[in-house]
Write a structure and sequence with these properties.
- The complex is a heterodimer of chains A (272) and B (315).
- With 272 residues, chain A is mostly helical.
- Chain A has a single domain, classed as MetI-like fold (Orthogonal Bundle).
- Helices cover 73% and strands 0% of the residues of chain A.
- The longest helix of chain A has 38 residues.
- Chain B has 2 domains: 72 residues; 226 residues, MetI-like (MetI-like fold, Orthogonal Bundle).
- In chain B, helix 1 packs antiparallel against helix 12 and helix 10 packs parallel to helix 11.
- The chains are: A mainly alpha (272), B mainly alpha (315).
- The interface between A and B is large, with 40 and 50 residues.
Chain lengths: 272, 315
């Protein structure tokens, strides 16, 4: 009998909540998130502004809602970049033994020395800060973890009897990779995607905080935090609301990743 | 074992060489000429050409690379195109500040993670263990800079116990130095501690299942005694790897935390370099950070062998 998996449920609910919030923000937000209104600067939370307003009189709740789009968009593209490069690399490294496989993994390890933030700052220095450079940098920095995880999964698949049979039957490596290896590592890809998503959310927030992420006026949680810094003494709520949003999003994707891992590998569940 | 040492050293040196090429090449593909960038768009062509000559930017790229690398090996990081000041001493000064943060953060992380993770593992089916697990999940989700902002709100704004930002060198005023170090170090350390706790927990859980621990218990040792004498050293091996990776994260995390607490560390230097378009400075700081990360991983590799006798004979 399948046990209830609390991580999967909690993570799923949180992630679904964020997705719904982002979708709703396309058709409705309490106020225009970028509307500057000097008359309503730094309002305390009230019935008309649930989370209050910021120094430009923009509604904080609306900004958080629209900011979730930025977060999800950056996460999806970054994880996409990481998966598109990392998964084939991992499978290739597992299938091509001897030195080419070794070289791939060494290069992969080397990339670990360039964390997302550092890479994104370098990209920002060279190409200018934008959402695109942030996404690509975060994505490239997440390639090594993808490649590593997929390689270890693919190595196991390569030892199975059906792959041996396929090879004995004379199948070429590429069809084997596509037909046997890839379908058997999809669970690993899903788990890794969820974990990488959490990392991407963190990195995007940090980058926007530093001014290397999404440029204004597009709302982003990290930049809301940065703008809140000058009001820490007078209006700390400006930091707390986007801060909670970031933490909840990261928590959601981490829990989802944990839950998926337990789901796909029941043996692990007991050990966690 | 000697073979393994030689292999690891080789990998480390090759990684250093390749990453230096990567960093240099990346900055070299830059659209636009560093001299033009440094002088601004209004500079005359003669001034730009003069600056290019002065800093050797008119030479072929490989010559520039080996020149830079040679300087790096001697601790000479060159002269900034923008401020015309030697970069080496600045980087060295700022690195010390960042190292204080990273070391203090790491100590806090360990002090939090080792006991918490062990208790979580030993009591993993009890309420106290589960509560700690949930707490660490939340800790993992909070980025260090956010923790920093929250700590400022509580301890500087509300309670007024500690300064909200600033930096004083330890030699100048040790008491002030400590006061200003506490919040940034806590924001780095608590978050890393939460991450590390989860690895300590699973490493200890793994060890708890081992036969030698059951034997130790059968000999009459209490659970925590057995774990203390036989378990922790074994659990230390996987935790060490994570610790190495985390040191790298801490180093990079410090970049952002320095911004929160207005600390003149390596991170602020890097960010200032980027905003001033001081490309050589950026290249140098990135390289120093990458060297630090590779060095830490190399040391972890060596410690691995020292901690786990099985690895010494395995190769």
């Amino acid at each position: 009998m399948k046990r209830l998996n609390p991580s999967l449920i909690a993570g799923g609910v949180i992630v679904a909540g964020i997705v719904v919030m982002a979708l709703v923000s396309f058709v409705w937000t309490p106020y225009d998130a970028t509307l500057v209104s000097p008359a309503s600067r730094l309002l305390e939370p009230s019935w008309s502004h649930w989370f209050g307003t910021d120094k430009f009189g923009r509604d904080v709740l609306s900004q958080i809602m629209v900011g979730s789009r930025t977060t999800l968009f950056v996460g999806v593209v970054a994880v996409g970049v990481a998966a598109v490069i990392g998964v084939p690399l991992g499978i290739l490294a597992a299938m091509v033994r001897r030195w080419p496989g070794e070289v791939i993994m060494r290069g992969n390890d080397l990339l670990l020395a360039f964390p997302a933030l550092l890479l994104a700052i370098m990209f920002g220095a060279v190409f200018g800060a934008s959402t695109l450079t942030a996404m690509v940098a975060i994505g490239i920095a997440s390639v090594p973890s993808f490649a590593r995880v997929i390689r270890s999964g693919a190595l196991q698949v390569m030892r199975t009897e059906y792959v041996l049979a396929a090879r004995a039957a004379g199948r070429q490596p590429f069809p084997i990779a596509l037909r046997h290896v890839l379908p058997n590592v999809t669970s690993l890809i899903t788990v890794q995607a969820s974990v990488s998503f959490a990392i991407a959310v963190l990195a995007e927030a940090a980058l926007s905080f530093l001014g290397y992420g999404t440029p204004p006026p597009t709302p982003s949680w990290g930049r809301m935090l940065q703008e809140s810094q000058e009001f820490l003494f007078s209006a700390p709520r400006l930091a707390i609301f986007p801060g909670i949003a970031i933490a909840i999003a990261v928590l959601g994707f981490n829990l989802l990743g944990d839950g998926l891992r337990d789901r796909f590998d029941p043996k692990l569940e007991d050990r966690r | 074992m000697i073979l393994r040492l030689i292999e690891r050293t080789g990998v480390f040196l090759v990684s250093l060489a390749v990453s230096s090429v990567l960093v240099f090449a990346f900055m070299a593909v830059l659209p636009g000429d560093p001299a033009r960038v440094a002088l601004g768009v209004n500079a005359s062509d003669e001034a730009v050409a003069e600056l290019r000559r002065q800093f050797g930017l008119d030479r072929p790229l490989p010559t520039q690379y080996f020149d830079w690398l040679g300087g790096l090996l001697h601790g000479d990081l060159g002269t900034s195109y923008v401020s015309k000041v030697a970069i080496g001493p600045q980087v060295f000064d700022r690195l010390q500040v960042t190292l204080w943060l990273v070391v203090a953060g790491m100590v806090i992380a360990l002090v939090v993670a080792v006991p918490a993770g062990t208790v979580m593992a030993a009591r993993h089916r009890k309420i106290s263990g589960l509560a700690l697990s949930a707490f660490s999940q939340v800790g993992v989700a909070v980025p260090a800079f956010l923790a920093g902002i929250l700590l400022i709100v509580v301890f500087a704004v509300r309670l007024g116990w500690l300064p909200a930002n600033g930096w004083t060198p330890p030699a100048q005023d040790p008491a002030m130095f400590l006061k200003q170090l506490i919040l940034p170090a806590l924001s780095l350390g608590l978050v890393q501690g939460a991450v590390l706790t989860r690895y300590v927990r699973s490493a200890v859980l793994e060890v708890l299942r081992e036969d030698y621990l059951r034997t130790a218990r059968a000999k009459g040792l209490r659970p925590f005694q057995a774990l203390w004498r036989h378990g922790l050293r074994n659990a230390a091996v996987p935790v060490l790897t994570v610790l190495g990776l985390q040191l790298a994260t801490l180093l990079i995390g410090a970049v952002v935390v320095e911004r929160v607490f207005v600390i003149p560390g390596l991170g602020s230097l890097l960010l200032d370099g980027v905003s001033n378009r001081d490309l050589l400075l950026v290249q140098d700081v990135v390289m120093v950070l990458v060297i630090a990360v590779l060095l830490v991983n190399f040391i972890v590799d060596l410690l691995y062998v020292a901690l786990d006798p099985r690895l010494r004979t395995a190769s």
